[in-house]
From TrEMBL:
It comes from the Bacteria. Signal peptide: none annotated. Residues 1-254 form the EAL domain. This is Diguanylate cyclase (GGDEF) domain-containing protein. The lineage of its organism: Bacteria, Pseudomonadati, Pseudomonadota, Betaproteobacteria, Burkholderiales.
Length: 254
């Protein structure tokens, strides 16, 4: 199949949807936020995994219009929940390198927030270590602009790329996300346990919150809690789910 051609049509054809994965506060056990993750439902191909089409979208530049759609979709969803009188929590978007470097992503976000009368604190962005380190100077300026708008920024996939600890100090991140690679064997592998523990301590001394990704078991959750990790995200609590299901979880006070 010519996936690129199908991907080009997908935005206009309304084939994308956002799913939401809870971020859980390890002190209260409550849902404190969500990561928004795109899903592509093609009429013939069925569900196409993001791992298959996000890299293609990045190569072809289609990530810019798709990313703009994501921003508008998440803002519209938050506004709909708010207008329905629902309790809402901050939602984080993933930004790709191309969007971050070339798109008018900041203007798109600002316009979308304004259109819906949304306070910027309801929207967060996740940037990967690799994206930030590609051009640290430019990234720092762009991130300042995000900060000026009132958005909080997470450093995604921390520990898997080449990041300089000096940059970590200089960049305005509010959260660090410990990559799943260190979480999977955290209760069996002393090296992974040591790395995760060190990331938490370092982030806290730099006044950043810590989110552990890919938490799948009670034992991993207990370990992270004992090390004072702030939030967990992972299948242990919930997979990424459609908007209605996510909202139901938030309203139940889970
Ligand atoms: O659930 P998961 O299979 O959703 O996501 C796979 C990969 O696709 C992850 O690396 C994730 O960061 C990326 N991804 C998911 N949704 C988006 C999105 O809306 N924008 C971008 N740029 N990447 C996304
Ligand atoms: O790359 P990024 O961290 O943005 O992507 C999040 C990815 O991790 C998504 O594909 C999401 O579905 C996946 N994910 C979330 N929780 C878990 C988990 O507990 N285990 C595994 N294996 N994947 C997870
Ligand atoms: Na992410
Ligand atoms: Mn990640």
């Amino acid at each position: 199949v010519d996936l690129e051609r199908l991907l080009k049509e997908a935005v206009d054809a309304g084939q994308f949807a956002m799913h939401y994965q809870p971020k859980v506060d390890l002190c209260t056990g409550q849902i404190a936020g969500a990561e928004a993750l795109i899903r592509w439902q093609h009429p013939q191909l069925g569900m196409v995994a993001p791992d298959r089409f996000i890299p293609l979208a990045e190569e072809t530049g289609l990530i810019v219009p798709i990313g703009d759609w994501v921003i508008r979709a998440v803002c519209a969803q938050l506004a709909r929940w708010r207008d329905d009188g629902q309790r809402i929590v901050p939602v984080a978007l993933n930004l790709s390198a191309l969007q971050f470097r070339e798109g008018n992503v900041l203007q798109t976000i600002a316009a979308s927030l304004k259109e819906h009368g949304l306070d910027p604190r309801w929207l967060e962005v996740e940037l990967t270590e690799t994206l930030v380190m590609y051009d640290p100077q430019a990234a720092q300026q762009t991130m300042r602009n995000f900060g000026d708008l009132g958005l909080r920024i997470s450093l995604d996939d921390f520990g898997t790329g080449y990041s300089s600890l000096a940059y970590l100090k200089r960049f305005p991140f509010q959260y660090v996300k410990i990559d799943r690679a260190f979480v999977t064997d955290i209760t069996q592998n002393p090296d992974d346990a040591a790395i995760a523990t060190a990331i938490i301590a370092m982030a806290h001394s730099l006044r950043m919150g810590v989110i552990a990704e890919g938490v799948e078991t009670e034992a991993q959750m207990q370990f992270l809690r004992s090390r004072r990790c702030d939030y967990l995200q992972g299948f242990y609590f919930s997979r990424p789910v459609p908007a209605a299901e996510f909202n139901a979880m938030v309203q139940e006070g889970r």
